[in-house]
Model the fold of this input.
Amino acid sequence: MENVFVLGVDKGIEADARLERLVAEHQTKLARYVRRFVSDRDLALDLTQDVFLAAHRMLRADPARPLTGGWLYKTATNHAISYLRKRKRRGDTLPLEEAAGAFRLDERSAQDLDLQAALGALAPEQLACVMLTAYAGYSSGEAALMLGLSPAAVRQRVCRAMRSLRVALGTSA
Amino acid sequence: MRAGFHRHFEALAAALALGEASEAERVEFAAHARSCAVCAADAAHGSALVGRLAAARDDERWQPHLDGDIGARLSVHRTQRSKQTFAVLGYAVAASLVVNVAFVGGFAGRALDALRVTPAPEAAAVNSLRIVLEHRAPREPAALALHRATRLAPHAQVAFRAPAPVARREAAAPPPAAPAAVPVPDVFAGIALESTALDRSVAFAQLCAEVRAADRPLPAGCDAIPAAPAR
Done:
């Protein structure tokens, strides 16, 4: 019984240490990535924390389990898509927190706001493919593994998402 | 067929935009793009959009800080998990208790059913005693007094018919005047019959038999003389 307890403490300490390393390494990129999905910083922080909590649960169960950045991006994408689908079912509108202060932004921020609005108009499945490939830099094969699709399906969704983005942003994009 | 053919070139256009297309795929797409304006536009603007998204990622100025929040969330999460664990344990114990009680109770009930003794014939005969609620005038004032003394809520109006002046001995005192309508529950009438009136009805029948044997005329109000009940 004592050995089990000590083993549990050790596993907990090791899991916490690995989680701290994961948070320090990926938190900024992951939160920015999630914000592109949900268009809200606080919400992006909440979802990112949920991703790290899921990682912590997995590490508590098996501290030796390899958790890469790809797993974090995959989990973050699934969390963000789930949130977008729930929001669509509820009929909520896109927050776009920056829209209220758009008049104070410079031209680069305004372009970024346009891009954010165009991304928010995409279907969640297309958005996931575009974000994993064009934004996060994964190949279509890696994105297919993360999303459970074929590489050809990921590429088709990327192409159709690009078409929608081109219409939303204008041909100058 | 046409749609599948076009989806193939959509995938190739995306591969070109993402920089993943092989040389053979580039040649194949270039041959198709010369005759398809949509795919040519996809390929032309796809690379620019990918570059714009990459630039948006690199130019991001938001610096999120999760360190403190993650620690707080984890502590809250652990507390919630421990509470949930205890709650689940409590529910499991309660559910097992309910199941055990129901299981044991079911078996105990079946065992009692199996051990239940059949009522004795005497008790069965008593239970099957036929109760007649009519023609039972309150000849026994004490019984009525007992009915009133119990003060149970009357739920029926039992009309007592005036006693028929049949076969009364001349010396017998006139029967007491029965109330026109006395609220007496049915169950009391039955109890009174069961306790006292049975013997009296037998005596009345015997008296009627004597009248019949003497061949005297029936008094007014007496339609028929019942036969003596078998005892």
